[in-house]
Design goal:
By secondary structure, the chain is an alpha+beta fold. It is built from 26 helices and seven strands. Helix content is about 75%, strand content about 5%.
């Protein structure tokens, strides 16, 4: 079992947060009022960093005030420091990577103009961290390798060591383990040379994690023991606990249960004093995992109860998932099948939730990467414009020389000017044509890449959940049928049937969406009777409404001629009507109305169901914010139905919108061109 090892890797990639106290921020706020104007900049920077942990809004406000103060002065160094601070705040607090990159690039340009290599390197380190957090480790490595020689040449050993550590982390992400190890060792050497115990301990700890990833457990244990010895001399409880739990995990993997228990209990004693609930929960999970390895399931259960308590207290979903998996293993081994099924279901549900969050994060990272690349493209265009302006000035100077000579050689110069004019015109026309072709190709490629990324991200997390459930339930049926009651088997069979239906509906919607995105959807625009399409769908979904005792009201003319694709229009009406039935409670009412305009018809499907808040309304039609909610009778959707509706309505030349109020129902309405 590798549950805890995965948790250990978090420290490698987490964003750095400087521990600040409210008292420090309060004292700085008082000091800001008392100090003279020329000292306020430094206080504002310190306040911005002090508020960064407890009050992001205040941190940004003070950071912007520092930037405004620096911008109003001639102090270029202060301007660079303020830009770097704002870039770090936008990255760490808001994940606004494109804004952060723009600020950091401004700082680099100002540092170059000033000729300050140290400030330029510090700005490059911030840019490297922006690229890493936005999912572009290759660019991140480029900028770290730009900053590193600058720190080395300026004889700044501590900045060199910390940059080496960050470089090693990026190499780990790229799975370039020899380079990562080389960077960590070089950082350790610098730490030993200057007696920086913190740098030595961090470097050795990261080496231990790296060796464990390569399954070199003996060397990993040796490194973690070295790091623990150093950290016990200087570090705070979280760092010491981190090392103790890593050592315990390594002993457990080598079946040295006595040593594993010793170190995990020692870690628990340390971390309890700090009251950091996430680490306490992780420690209890590690202790329980050790008991499970010894098949002492009864001893593991109360420990897991404590882990679940602390994990839920801080809503740490990954820790809770580890706890549910261990509880499932324990109850299954103790033949507590009902409890095993319960915790397996909880594990599956929270895994699906984590997968959804991870997918949303990846989508945000992809969007950030696109924004950053767009920003780089704009910068490149500005550089090209500057080069063109320089070339234009050069040409104008040469033309002046030619005009002076033209006084003496009018005929020769006139011919030469004419030749240059024709050549330049042809070149410009050719260049304009090439630029137009390149722009069109880039736009098409960008759209294709965006569509591909969205399509694969949906498949990656939406299919995984139902298949994982099917695998879990089939495993129980295969291996434990003889120990289960008929009711338990029927319960599992119903779950399997529900998962298969959900998976079929998902694949059907995915196929329709993929066809619309790739151009394979064949739209046949023709004139047809919209009233008949609505009546057909009412007949199709009438039994579903009747099962929930829902009243269907509709007012339609005998004939309503429109011009669009009949199949996709029917799909839109069926999806919207099915959704209305799903989210309307028993005994509710659904009304279908038609408004005729000069050149369009509006269809309205209104229910008095559960409704939705404004923030949900903003997500339901967006592919990067896919949202799925269970119906009033527990019906489960794919989250793609409304996205398909939007795609089909817009391809038919219409518009779709929703008006809803939580607890009062929803009104979906869309337009379609009139015949």
């Amino acid at each position: 079992m590798r549950i805890f090892f995965i948790g250990l890797l978090f420290c490698i990639f987490s964003k750095p947060v400087v521990a600040q106290t409210p008292d420090l921020a309060d004292s700085l706020e008082v000091k800001l009022v008392l100090v003279p104007e020329n000292e306020k900049f430094d206080i504002l920077l310190q306040l911005s960093q002090a508020h960064s942990r407890t009050s992001p809004d205040k941190a940004l406000q003070r950071g912007q005030e520092a930037f405004a103060l620096a911008s109003g002065s001639d102090n270029k160094e202060a301007q660079i420091l303020a830009l770097n601070n704002l870039a770090a705040l936008n990255k760490n607090l808001l994940s606004e990577y494109d804004i952060a990159l723009d600020l950091a690039l401004q700082a680099v340009r100002k540092a170059e103009e000033l000729g300050n290599a140290r400030l330029k390197a510090e700005s490059e380190v911030i840019i490297a961290s922006i690229y890493f957090d936005s999912g572009n480790p290759f660019k991140s490595l480029d900028y770290y390798l730009l900053a590193l020689p600058a720190f080395q040449s300026l004889d700044l050993p501590l900045k060199t060591a910390t940059t080496l550590i960050e470089t090693g982390k990026v190499q780990v992400e790229l799975e370039n383990y020899p380079k990562a190890l080389e960077a960590f060792k070089e950082a350790e050497d610098i730490g030993r040379k200057y007696s920086e115990t913190d740098i030595i301990g961090t470097s050795i700890y990261l080496m231990g994690v790296l060796y464990q990833r390569q399954n070199n457990l003996e060397t990993a244990l040796e490194k973690h023991l070295q790091a623990l010895k150093l950290r016990e001399e200087f570090a705070q409880a979280p760092a010491i606990t981190e090392s103790l739990l890593a050592i315990s995990e390594l002993y457990r993997l080598q079946n040295a249960h006595k040593e594993a228990l010793f170190y995990v209990k020692k870690g628990l004693n340390y971390i309890r004093k700090s009251r950091q609930k996430s680490l306490i929960a992780a420690s209890y999970n590690q202790l329980a995992a050790t008991y499970v390895s010894q098949e002492e399931y009864s001893r593991a259960l109360p420990v897991l109860d404590s882990a679940l308590y602390f994990g839920q207290a801080v809503n740490n979903k990954k820790t809770m998932r580890q706890t549910y998996e261990l509880l499932y293993d324990c109850h299954l081994s103790l033949n507590h099948y009902n409890q095993a099924i319960r915790y397996k279901t909880l594990y599956t549900d929270i895994s699906e939730f984590i997968n959804n969050e991870e997918n949303a994060r990846k989508m945000a990272e992809m969007q950030a990467r696109f924004d950053i690349e767009k920003k780089e493209g704009e910068i490149e265009v500005l550089k090209r414009d500057q080069e063109i302006k320089t070339l234009t000035i050069e040409k104008q100077r040469y033309l002046t020389y030619f005009l002076i000579l033209g006084i003496l050689l009018v005929i020769a110069i006139a011919g030469l000017v004419y030749y240059l004019y024709i050549t330049k015109k042809k070149s410009n026309l050719k260049l304009a044509e090439i630029n137009t072709q390149i722009q069109l190709s880039n736009e098409q490629l960008s759209e294709l890449n965006s569509t591909k990324d969205r399509f694969f991200s949906i498949i990656a997390h939406d299919i995984k959940g139902p298949l994982h459930s099917l695998r879990s339930f089939s495993d129980l049926l295969i291996n434990h049928t003889d120990k289960m009651s008929k009711e338990e088997i029927q319960f599992l069979a119903k779950d399997i049937d529900t998962s298969l239906k959900n998976l079929f509906g998902l694949l059907e919607n995915l196929l329709e969406w993929a066809r619309s995105q790739t151009g394979a959807l064949d739209l046949r625009v023709e004139q047809f009777d919209l009233s008949q399409i609505v009546k057909n769908n009412l007949s199709l979904l009438g039994p579903s409404a009747a099962a929930k005792e829902i009243t269907l009201k509709y007012g339609l003319p005998e004939s309503l001629q429109v011009r669009a694709d009949a199949n996709t229009t029917s799909t839109v009406i069926r999806n919207l009507l099915s959704n209305a039935i799903k989210f309307t409670p028993k005994g509710g009412e659904i009304a279908i109305r038609v408004n005729e305009w000069k050149d369009a018809v509006e269809i309205s499907i209104k229910d008095n169901g559960v409704g939705m808040p404004k923030e949900v309304q903003e997500k339901i039609f967006r592919i990067d914010q896919k949202h799925s909610t269970k119906g009033t009778a527990g019906e489960k959707g794919t989250g793609l139905g409304l996205i398909l509706c939007k795609e089909f309505v817009e391809k038919n030349g219409g518009h779709i919108a929703v008006h809803s109020e939580e607890g009062k129902g929803s009104d979906f309405h869309f337009t379609i061109p009139k015949a």
